[in-house]
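Worked example

This section walks through a single chain of length 87. The input is the sequence exactly as stored; nothing has been trimmed or padded.
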Amino acid sequence: MLSHQLSDPTLEQLVHGYATLASLVRPATIAPTIKDDPDDDGVLAAAVAARARLIVSGDRHLLTLGQVQGIAILTVRQAMEQLAQQP
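Given that input, the structure is written out below as tokens.
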């Protein structure tokens, strides 16, 4: 687990860094999409509401979709490769 690998100040900096990038949104109303794991629909609804460009996940149900409403769903590796190609 990540919290066991990082010192308290480092973990606090990491959380603060993410918090400065995050925005609270009210999840959009979407049609049920992932029948095998309906809780994953919450991730999709939040991404749609936030007008996200990308969902990074290791969840097989999400990854199987590939995209939702124009939002790409990628693994960490795929996302890192995509970011490395940007100028």
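What to look for: The longest helix spans residues 8-21.
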